[in-house]
Amino acid sequence: MVKVGIVGGTGYTGVELLRLLAQHPQAEVVVITSRSEAGLAVADMYPNLRGHYDGLAFSVPDIKTLGACDVVFFATPHGVAHALAGELLAAGTKVIDLSADFRLQDADEWAKWYGQPHGAPQLLEEAVYGLPEVNREQIKQARLIAVPGCYPTATQLGFLPLLEAGLADTTRLIADCKSGVSGAGRGAAVGSLYAETSESMKAYAVKGHRHLPEIRQGLRRAAGKDVGLTFVPHLTPMIRGIHSTLYATVVDRSVDLQALFEKRYANEPFVDVMPAGSHPETRSVRGANVCRIAVHRPQDGDLVVVLSVIDNLVKGASGQAVQNLNILFGLDERLGLSHAGMLP
Ligand SMILES: NC(=O)C1=CN([C@@H]2O[C@H](COP(=O)(O)OP(=O)(O)OC[C@H]3O[C@@H](n4cnc5c(N)ncnc54)[C@H](OP(=O)(O)O)[C@@H]3O)[C@@H](O)[C@H]2O)C=CC1
Ligand SMILES: CC(=O)N[C@@H](CCC(=O)OP(=O)(O)O)C(=O)O
């Protein structure tokens, strides 16, 4: 059994980790922290977990108890893992961070987008970006994993086959992305209220969103050169889900894009390339650790439209984090993650 600790167990990604790990045959959650709910039984806060975590209660973060775990997940706001990851690594505990603390390779770039100095630049070199479809071999050897963000997961998986094959004009890529409201976290905020978000939809952060440098970093690696990317996120009236509509211009019209995508993801357990002409729905991945993709070439011209959907809390966060755990500990990558999406 892999002994698991979770720092920040009361947010949406924390409770989603608990839900997924409840079905995991080889991982056991032994520590879960919350400063505000310390002492409260997990199932008293989250009744969906009644019967799964008897005896497990929230506790204040403590390096001694966390350091006794094999692996610790951080499901915390940005900056928290900076402060604690180093001590845990020194104690021999592996770290899987769901926040953005170790996603960007450049500490100055991180400081610019996250509005505070990077708290652990000395750890950046060894941090592995936890997108298994790209970095599976590095994840196997890692001590510190940065789980990709939700928009970056859907967007990179949609663009990768085109960029790796050198088939897209990299100067003009467009990612038009929609997110459900749970992407904003569980914290109380006027912008997340039901009356503010239902029956309405809006774009935000058009001038620049903090996921832009993360997506650009991944696409640059795939293309082997700088990319010009326009990324526009939208808030939509659903709870879970990301829908990315991606646009690129192909430089060679003769290539069979459907075959290219199918081949790229043929051995990936959590990427589903749909038949030509399909329109993936976010509800088809709700609760599932799946990125479902369809590739289109309208009017057979040189424009490619890729549709990519995920559940922001699963393949976009906690599911991907568990997938990383499985790879890291040499387990079957699908453990705890094989359930289908919930439809309707
Ligand atoms: N929501 C989503 O779809 C996605 C979220 N993420 C990222 O995952 C992380 C978690 O997000 P989310 O689940 O929404 O929850 P929150 O960002 O709301 O995090 C809340 C948790 O962190 C704990 N926490 C807060 N401050 C500290 C601190 N200084 N030290 C220790 N614990 C702290 C809180 O408990 P307490 O204050 O009681 O200690 C609580 O359990 C964030 O970085 C988010 O950006 C990533 C991908 C998708
Ligand atoms: C709808 C919504 O507000 N989404 C969040 C992004 C999701 C998230 O949690 O960001 P990380 O993946 O970097 O942690 C936002 O735009 O700030």
Question: Can you lay out the helices and strands and say which pair or pack?
Answer:
Layout: E1 2-7, H1 12-21, E2 27-33, H2 42-45, E3 58-59, H3 63-67, E4 71-74, H4 80-90, E5 94-97, H5 107-114, E6 128-129, H6 132-141, E7 144-146, H7 150-164, E8 173-179, H8 194-197, E9 202-203, H9 211-223, E10 229-235, E11 242-249, H10 257-264, E12 271-273, E13 291-296, E14 303-310, H11 314-328
Parallel strand pairs: 1-2, 1-4, 2-3, 4-5, 5-7, 6-7, 8-10, 12-13
Antiparallel strand pairs: 8-11, 9-10, 11-14, 13-14
Helix pairs in contact: 1-11, 6-11, 7-9
This protein binds NADPH dihydro-nicotinamide-adenine-dinucleotide phosphate and N-acetyl-L-glutamyl 5-phosphate.
EC number: 1.2.1.38
Keywords: Amino-acid biosynthesis, Arginine biosynthesis, Cytoplasm, NADP, Oxidoreductase
Pathway: Amino-acid biosynthesis; L-arginine biosynthesis; N(2)-acetyl-L-ornithine from L-glutamate: step 3/4
Structure description:
Residues 3-142 form the Semialdehyde dehydrogenase NAD-binding domain. Belongs to the NAGSA dehydrogenase family. Type 1 subfamily. Catalyzes the NADPH-dependent reduction of N-acetyl-5-glutamyl phosphate to yield N-acetyl-L-glutamate 5-semialdehyde. Keywords: Amino-acid biosynthesis, Arginine biosynthesis, Cytoplasm, NADP, Oxidoreductase. The structure is a single chain. The chain has 344 residues and is of the alpha/beta class. It has two domains: 2-126, Rossmann fold, CATH 3.40.50; 150-312, Dihydrodipicolinate Reductase, domain 2 (2-Layer Sandwich), CATH 3.30.360. The chain is 30% helix and 20% strand. Strands 3-2-1-4-5-7-6 form a seven-stranded parallel beta sheet, with helices on both faces. A seven-stranded mixed beta sheet has the order 9-10-8-11-14-13-12. Strand 4 (71-74), helix 4 (80-90) and strand 5 (94-97) form a beta-alpha-beta unit. The relative contact order is 0.14. NADPH dihydro-nicotinamide-adenine-dinucleotide phosphate (NDP) binds at residues 7-14, 34-37, 61, 75-78, 80, 98-99, 149-150, 182-183, 185-187, 312-313, 316-317. The site of N-acetyl-L-glutamyl 5-phosphate has 9 residues, from strand 10.
